[in-house]
Amino acid sequence: MNGVMTQKRRVHAMLELAGWLAVTGAAAALGARASIDAASFYAQLDRPAWAPPGWLFGPVWSVLYLMMALAAWRVGRIRTPPPRPAWLLYLAQLALNALWSWLFFAWHLGAPAFACIVALWLMMVATIVSFGRRSCCGPAWRGSASPVCCALPSGSAIRRCCNVNTPAIVRGVVPQQWYFVKHRKALSFFYL
């Protein structure tokens, strides 16, 4: 009888893990869909010298999403107190994570993307605290907050380094009038 219960618990645990991997993978896929043309857009930005190279985002975020899913699963392994508030924070930050990719890379809405990343960072801090209270998962979340911490000043620095009178966010020669008309949404972020 005891062996049967242990086997059922293992199966249940694996199903929960598969569920968190699926939910997290869906959020990652949604964000990745928005980032299809991210490399060319990112290359056009006049970034600070310390901004990471574009090729680094895919591998780093793949590992981070995996760590986040494992952390969400581990939090659920401790049933007292109920994990629901921690999970709701996790799901909310996943939604913000996917939304940021759409705002910045797909729709080129810089100001809303910057506001989203600030909200995302605050949500991640709340999730780190919530997860840390329940298990050893807080440190895993600190790793996922690091790229967001890098994106906050990077977005602000990109905004500040651009001169209002020149289309500085595009490398090469681009007529200013064309750029303002064609990319007005992207410029709203840099020329606040």
Radius of gyration: 20 Å
Given helix and strand content, the structural type is mainly alpha
Beta-strand content bin: under 5%
The percent range for helix content is over 70%
Overall mean confidence score, pLDDT: 75
Order of helices and strands: HHHHHHHH
- CATH level 1 name: Mainly Alpha
Task: Assign the CATH architecture.
Answer: Up-down Bundle
- Largest β sheet strand count, sense and barrel closure: none
What would you call the shape? elongated
CATH topology label: Ferritin
Gap between N and C termini, in Å? 67 Å
Unreliable runs: 156-192
Count of helical stretches: 8
Kindly give the count of domains: 1
Oligomer: single chain
CATH superfamily: TspO/MBR protein
Number of strand elements: 0
Task: Walk me through the structure.
- The chain contains 8 helices and no strands.
- The protein is mainly α and 192 residues long.
- It has one domain: TspO/MBR protein (Ferritin).
- Helix 3 packs antiparallel against helix 6, helix 4 packs antiparallel against helix 5 and helix 5 packs across helix 8.
- The longest helix has 33 residues.
- It is elongated and about 60 Å long.
Detail the topology: elements first, then pairings.
Blueprint: H1 2-34, H2 38-44, H3 57-77, H4 84-106, H5 110-134, H6 138-161, H7 176-182, H8 184-190
Q: Which descriptors would you attach to this protein?
A:
192 residues, mainly alpha, Ferritin, 77% helix, 0% strand
What does this entry show, briefly?
By secondary structure, the protein is an all-alpha fold.
